[in-house]
Specification:
The structure is a homodimer. By secondary structure, the first copy, chain A, is of the alpha+beta class. Chain A has one domain: Ubiquitin-like (UB roll). Chain A has two helices and eight strands; from the N terminus they run αβββαβββββ. Strand 1 of chain A pairs parallel with strand 8 of chain B.
Chain lengths: 150, 150
């Protein structure tokens, strides 16, 4: 599922692909080296193994494939996953807007999909990506920018 | 939130703490060096910032604090988070059993909590841990051991 082809009809997207990834001011240092997105994968799954019957809206963890940083938790329904596989960029279901949401369509901060892993129960996804920019709508690199202080 | 104290009344737990972490046969190499669990944290959150009103069962991403590997997606209600903070080990809400679930209570594969991050919307948690053993009930190091083949 390598994706660096972009969309020939979308100059914005192509421009972003040619740039180095945009990094926000809040970016943390690269604390992980590049790693094999196959790591930990001892099996394969098919789209039909994803249990949309049990969970029509599946949580999808988005992780930076280069740094290992967890960026976002978003949700996918069957159509969002299908569109993600088609575009090789993340497409979620926006619970607040009640519609499909191609991440980056507004901000330009697309997330190119490197790999998708399914969990043991078939009801959660882990998506490794190369982000074009910060994941968070606040401009933070990751949505998990607040550390809990008990 | 460092936790290596263990529980003086629980020899099983102490034994595990004194050992090197148990690793499953499916363990991937350590593809990330140790890293600062403060990485990416530009702010703080308090327990009252967690939006249990909106999401009585919050998804909690569990990530290995040493390797960066995402291990599990589980769920926490208010009580599970409170118990997690108290024990400094992960406690989830088991949706299948309908009860609190101290991870490792049966398997010995406790997860010592290093840090907890809250996302921008206050409705998802990222928990960095030092695991005592494989995260998955299948014996796999991570629950996300299946790579999706479209």
């Amino acid at each position: 599922m390598n994706n660096n082809k972009g969309n020939a009809n979308d100059p914005m997207q192509n421009a972003l692909i040619l740039q180095k990834p945009v990094r926000s001011m809040t970016m943390s240092p690269e604390f992980f080296p590049d790693f094999d997105p196959n790591r930990g994968a001892t099996g394969i799954a098919r789209v039909e193994d994803v249990d949309f019957e049990k969970m029509p809206l599946l949580p999808a963890i988005v992780q930076d494939a280069s740094t290992g940083e967890v960026l976002t938790l978003a949700y996918m329904n069957r159509e969002a996953l299908a569109r993600t596989l088609e575009l090789k960029q993340t497409v979620f279901w926006s619970r607040s807007r009640g519609e499909l949401w191609h991440k980056g369509a507004t901000s330009g901060h697309f997330q190119d999909v490197v790999s998708i892993h399914l969990d043991c129960d078939g009801d959660a996804l882990l998506i490794l990506v190369h982000p074009h920019g910060p994941a968070c709508h606040t401009g933070a690199e990751t949505c998990f920018y607040r550390r809990l202080q008990p």
